[in-house]
Write a structure and sequence with these properties.
mainly alpha; about 90% helix; about 0% strand
Length: about 55
C-alpha cells in the first residue's frame, strides 16, 4: 500500500500538467489570435522605443 501513496502525488501532478498543456495548446490561435498578436507587437514596440530613448539620452 505504500507504493500507492508514493505514486499518487506524481500521477496527479502529471495529469494536471498534461491538462494544462492541452488547454494552452487549444487556446492558441482562433478568432482572438490577431488581437493578441497586435497587443504583443504594440508592447514590444513600446519597449524598444523606451530602450532606444534611454540610450540616446
Amino acid at each position: 500500500m505504500d507504493y500507492v501513496s508514493a505514486l499518487l502525488p506524481p500521477v496527479v501532478m502529471a495529469a494536471f500538467f498534461i491538462t494544462l498543456v492541452v488547454t494552452i495548446v487549444k487556446s492558441q490561435g482562433g478568432p482572438n489570435k490577431a488581437k493578441e498578436d497586435a497587443a504583443v507587437d504594440a508592447a514590444l514596440s513600446r519597449a524598444e522605443a523606451t530602450r532606444q530613448a534611454g540610450t540616446d539620452a
